[in-house]
Amino acid sequence: MRRKISAAIIGLGVACVSVLATGSASSHGYTDSPTSRQAFCADGTVEDCGEIQWEPQSVEGPKGFPSHGPSDGTICAGGNSRFAELDDPRGGDWPATQVSAGQSYTFRWRLTARHATTDFRYYLTNGTYDPTRPLTRADLDLQPFLTVPYGGRVPDATVTHQGTLPSGRTGKQLIVAVWTIADTGNAFYACSDVQF
């Protein structure tokens, strides 16, 4: 009788671990090159960030951006109201990474939990972008300037992508990086302020 109970407990434990390992909660990540808003909050560079300071890897929202996904004004938080501080433009005062138009750049993600991946995509704001207002799709070039397909593979814990920043940009702009998960309905979002 004792063996049957032990076997049942072990079986239940394995089933629970399997369920936890396949859900969307098992995949998390954020960009730190260029430094994302959530990374600045996590390292204390920016204060009054709310919960994101402890969970920079958790900006998860619906996938399918830009035709689907988070609504306008909630893009940087992935549509997740827990992290609404990321959508606050702070008067345009978010720290920005210095870049140059047409520059070759290495983009980097830190993945605290890896997952089967469709792709990574990078979008840049356009000439109408106002860094003092919440981000909308009208502020973005809706064609990504860099797409890295993954075909369902699981990426490493640190992922780098080499790309070229679009030419013709000046002033403060915003890069929206999207990590699309292959086997859930979600993606991870990271907004990085940059100064051309």
Notes on the structure:
The protein has 196 residues and is an alpha+beta fold. The chain has one domain: chitin-binding protein cbp21 (Coagulation Factor XIII, Chain A, domain 1, Distorted Sandwich), CATH 2.70.50. It is 14% helix and 31% strand. It has helices at residues 2-22, 37-42, and strands spanning 28-33, 60-62, 97-98, 104-113, 117-124, 146-149, 158-164, 172-181, 186-195. Strand 8 and strand 9 (186-195) form a beta hairpin. The N and C termini lie far apart (71 Å). The model is unreliable at 4-26 (pLDDT under 50).
Molecular shape = globular
Number of domains: 1
Indicate the structural class.
alpha+beta
For the termini, the CA-CA separation is 71 Å
**Mean pLDDT across every amino acid position:** 89
Strand content: 25-35%
Classified in CATH, the superfamily is chitin-binding protein cbp21
Poorly predicted regions are 4-26
Based on the structure given, which CATH architecture is correct?
A: Distorted Sandwich
User: What's the total helix number?
Assistant: 2
The biggest beta sheet is recorded as: 6 strands, mixed
CATH structural class: Mainly Beta
Number of strands: 9
CATH topology: Coagulation Factor XIII, Chain A, domain 1
**Element string (H = helix, E = strand):** HEHEEEEEEEE
**Oligomeric state of the chains in view:** single chain
InterPro entries: Cellulose/chitin-bd_N, GlcNAc_Chitin_IntDeg, Ig_E-set
Signal peptide: 1-21
Organism: Streptomyces olivoverticillatus
Region (Disordered): 58-92
